Input
Amino acid sequence: MTSQKTNRPVVGIACNRETYGLDVGDIDRQRLEAVSELRFEEFDLPTSWDEPPVADADTDARFRTFVSGLDAIVVCHGSPRVTAEAMDASPNLRFIGELEGDRFAQRIDVEAAIERGIRSIDTTQGSSYPVSEWALAMMLIGLRNAGSLYRKLIDHQHVFEDDSRYKDPGFLRGELTGKTVGMIGAGHIGRRLLELLKPFRLNVLVHDPYVPREIADIYDLTMTSLDNVMSVPDVVVCLAPITPATRGMIGEREIGLLKPGAVFVNVSRGAIVDSDALIARLQKGDVVASLDVFEPEPIPVDSPIRDLPNAFITPHIAGVTAANSHRFFSLMVDELLRFFDGHETRYDLLPQTLANRRGTPPATR
Output
């Protein structure tokens, strides 16, 4: 698995200069340099999370030359796509990693890698750490009706008069402990959230056709239909990726299934939910929403969602923290060290991953 020129594996990083400066922290770079020869090559192709890089003959040729001497290549914003041609030009290549791409694998031809026995890894799920924390916070904020109370406070209103405190949703249904929670999606964010939810002794219902059934036993939860997840729980949390199958998945009918008093949380993507239908349900005043995402973004200044007292909104901040900037690369270094030591990697891009992202039916489990 080593290159012909050195006894140490040769690892390349291909991305733009800004990404290299933000993502590649000194400590993790030194960890990798302790066991490998590290090379960086700057590329500046237009970048996207959900579209592959546009092919450019000269840049692709330079990229193939760079990759040809590597045992492992890590790509990110600015890099060309790792094509079958690039793989075939790289006789020692056994590992391809993507730092940031929402696990869409747009910079890797995953099928070509699988055919050639090359490991494909994506560590975008590094953002699952802050997103899961914010999901928990949004659940608690929604249950306590804190958004509505905060609006009154900053509007210089008296919040509780007479016995109004005892009629407030936050008083009536404000504790998370012992509640039933529904999760739409049980990927990396969902599983981290499940760890955070353990102390609350919850009944958890999950809808996710792409995760193995074994997680129900591991996390003590119930796998069920989307309708059950929307209609039964006290709190519903949307954690699904945006794909052709999930875009608009939560429409008027699904939102109508929320039981009175329920809290709806979305920290995934706004386009999964029909915004007009959600606003219409919130205007009835019988449910609460805590939203980090919305469709469209940024939220229009005249959108009714901004004025609804039972909507707590934040501007898509869940996964954006300073600590998270280096985590993608740190997790990738962990994976490279496992791979070089002959261990199994954790974050492989597999046919099931691609089926999920493309919205195609999952493989038989």
